[in-house]
Specification:
The chain has about 160 residues and is an alpha+beta fold. The chain has helices spanning about 5-15, 80-95, 110-115, 145-155; strands at about 20-25, 40-50, 50-55, 60, 65, 100-105, 105-110, 120, 125, 130-135, 140. It has one domain (about 5-155). It comes from Microbacterium sp. LWS13-1.2.
């Protein structure tokens, strides 16, 4: 099966499954020289399948994943913690509910390039088979097997998940 057919089959299986929010970071213009706080605007929703996000009409590569929360003064031991907290606060300012999962910094992928023998983000054509690189250091896995596993996990999560 082609990558497009595999994604369409996954969409059909996931029709009733919960989706997670997609957001886009917006840095507002200054007004009279005063900076305003950035916010995350809602862009849509997608099924989260590991390194991939599947929408009704597209495939995206995941970026940052945060839970929206109110801004609060905290002490941080690492700058990366501070940046994640700022993204979470920006999501809350953008109208996301407290604790809602938001995907930010995602990238649009082109599965038709993979069907033509090329690659797009973590999607790769190897030996005529669509494959996915499931981690930066990980090897390639058949896209068909990867989607089957991820869809099954989303439809029937393990106990305690």
């Amino acid at each position: 099966m082609s990558a497009l057919e595999l994604f369409n089959a996954a969409r059909a299986r996931l029709a009733e499954a919960p989706r997670e929010a997609l957001g886009e970071l917006v840095v507002p213009r200054r007004i009279l020289g005063v900076a305003r706080a950035p916010r995350v605007e809602r862009w849509g929703a997608a099924w989260h399948l590991g390194v991939l996000l599947l929408t009704d009409d597209g495939v995206l590569a995941t970026g940052d994943i945060v839970r929206a929360r109110q801004e609060a003064r905290r002490g941080y031991t690492a700058e990366s913690q501070r940046q994640r907290a700022e993204l979470a606060a920006a999501a809350r300012r953008g109208g996301f509910a407290e604790g809602e999962t938001v995907h930010i910094g995602w990238r649009m992928l082109q599965p038709d390039l993979v069907d033509a023998g090329g690659e797009s983000g973590p999607l790769v054509a190897a030996a005529g088979v669509a494959r996915v690189r499931w981690s930066a250091a990980g090897g390639l896995m058949s896209l068909e097997a990867y989607l089957a596993e991820r869809v099954a996990l989303l439809l029937e999560p393990p106990a305690g998940a």
